[in-house]
């Protein structure tokens, strides 16, 4: 007993001495606690560096929120995660369904982060049918539909003019997501007044298309985003995408992209989909104009591309940051869930 008392006194004296010398570091409890994420912004690719060169999908977000934030490598994720002091985090997930969703899964499982109350903005560039959108548009998804999950066959193997797609049974909960209408409504309301950039090249390119919507100036829109690893193209497959959207009871197909439905499924399995948004900017039409074939549109001659890419990636962040900033500023109101939309 006496030896134990002497031992404890000796340890206590040593601790006091080292504290006085400033050589002991007590554990900081706050440092071990996970970051409480308020908003997570996902981009799919960046062209070069995160800042200072040609901007891809991530650069404008990075320059707004994370220039002073250190990178945090996450095992299993393609790129590091960045977080600022306001709880706004983001990362480049990678292109395509498998690439992006595996990164998202790794990030959600990292104990460094608490996503239990987080909102997600899945952002990137996309295509649009000329009857529903134009170059420079930014679109909030009301529905996400997986384009690939089903059966397809060659047109000559079916009846002329009939669809060549049939949904596969068993994928009902994987292939279709209706995003929270109240949250989508907030996103549209907050971003509708955004001053969207445009370019002379994009204006000239639009005039190749006869559709009024294709010729219009960029706008904030909403509708179904079609997710497909298949980079479908041409009026026939665009018509098929619209057919699938209607077959599933979703809104008009307005955006073709490669990741959102897959990422949303990963988030759904842990946190549901009530706090998920998909934001896309249109940088191309999903088909050629009446004077070119689909292959000519996919492989254009020099100087014949759409233009407007730089302006569109800026538009994505300009519209999306309005939603991010609103949620963070009014966090006490948003923390427990999406507030009711104010009356008109």
UniProtKB/TrEMBL annotation:
GO biological process, alphabetically ordered: nucleoside metabolic process; transmembrane transport
Keywords: Signal
InterPro entries linked to this entry: Nucleoside_phosphorylase_sf (IPR035994), Pur_nuclsid_perm (IPR009486)
Domain of life: Bacteria
Entry coiled-coil feature ranges: none
One Gene Ontology molecular-function label: catalytic activity
Signal sequence residues: 1-30
Pfam families for this protein: NUP
Protein name, entry field: Purine nucleoside permease
